[in-house]
């Protein structure tokens, strides 16, 4: 059973991606903030608002056993459809399209992490099909309606990812 040493990275990264100034693109950071406010401090989980930093987030992936990506994804579903992928291959993230200022952010980040050997052992995704991508603050009604379920799913995944990380 492993534990996090002082100065080392926490095994599980919860990474919110998106722009709060582009309506539904703010899903990732909004969900991340809800999780930060409701989860107890955990020495095995780090919560990061990655915004639209793209490859600037690469160093955050190094040394992790798992990453949970929170983002708005276009998967040709009805607006507000929740996308929960508890275990996805890094190259499958690119099949889910972005429609925002950080388009390709998650897929590009994971592709480079795979090339540099910084890819976490497990990748999970919680996303939502956006309704509106336009300048504005706040989520559309269909996306806002998914937040409670997204939070529930994220908490369950974080617990699972943390448990798996401790067994390594």
Write the layout of secondary structure elements.
Blueprint: E1 12-17, H1 27-38, E2 45-51, H2 58-61, E3 66-72, E4 82-85, H3 105-116, E5 122-128, H4 141-144, H5 147-166
Parallel strand pairs: 1-2, 1-3, 3-5
Antiparallel strand pairs: 4-5
Helix pairs in contact: 1-5
Task: Tell me what you see in this structure.
The protein has 168 residues and is of the alpha/beta class. It has one domain (12-166): Rossmann fold. It contains 5 helices and 5 strands. A 5-stranded mixed sheet has the order 2-1-3-5-4, with helices on one face. α1 links the parallel β1 (12-17) and β2. It starts with 11 loop residues before the first strand and ends with a helix. 38% of the residues are buried.
Query: Into how many domains do the coordinates divide?
Result: 1
Helix-strand string: EHEHEEHEHH
CATH-derived topology: Rossmann fold
Tertiary shape: globular
What integer is the average pLDDT?
85
CATH architecture: 3-Layer(aba) Sandwich
- Neighbour order of strands in the largest sheet: 2-1-3-5-4
Q: Report the structural category.
A: alpha/beta
DSSP summary: helix tally: 5
- Strand runs, count: 5
- Please state the oligomeric state of the protein chains shown: single chain
Summary, kept brief:
With 168 residues, the protein is an alpha/beta fold.
Which descriptors apply to this entry?
single chain; alpha/beta; Rossmann fold; five-stranded mixed beta sheet; 18% strand
């Amino acid at each position: 059973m492993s534990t996090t040493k002082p100065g080392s990275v926490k095994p599980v990264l919860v990474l919110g991606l998106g722009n709060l100034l582009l309506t539904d693109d703010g899903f990732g950071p909004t969900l991340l903030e809800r999780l930060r406010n409701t989860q107890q401090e955990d020495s095995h989980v780090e919560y990061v608002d990655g915004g639209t930093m793209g490859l600037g987030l690469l160093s955050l992936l190094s040394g992790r056993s798992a990453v949970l990506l929170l983002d708005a994804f276009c998967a040709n579903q009805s607006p507000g459809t929740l996308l929960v992928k508890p275990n996805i291959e890094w190259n499958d993230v690119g099949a889910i399209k972005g429609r925002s200022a950080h388009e390709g952010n998650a897929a590009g980040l994971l592709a480079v992490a795979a090339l540099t050997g910084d890819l976490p052992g497990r990748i999970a995704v919680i996303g939502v099909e956006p309704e509106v991508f336009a300048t504005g603050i706040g989520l559309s009604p269909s996306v806002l309606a998914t937040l409670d379920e997204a939070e529930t799913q994220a908490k369950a995944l974080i617990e699972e990812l943390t448990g798996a990380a401790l067994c390594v």
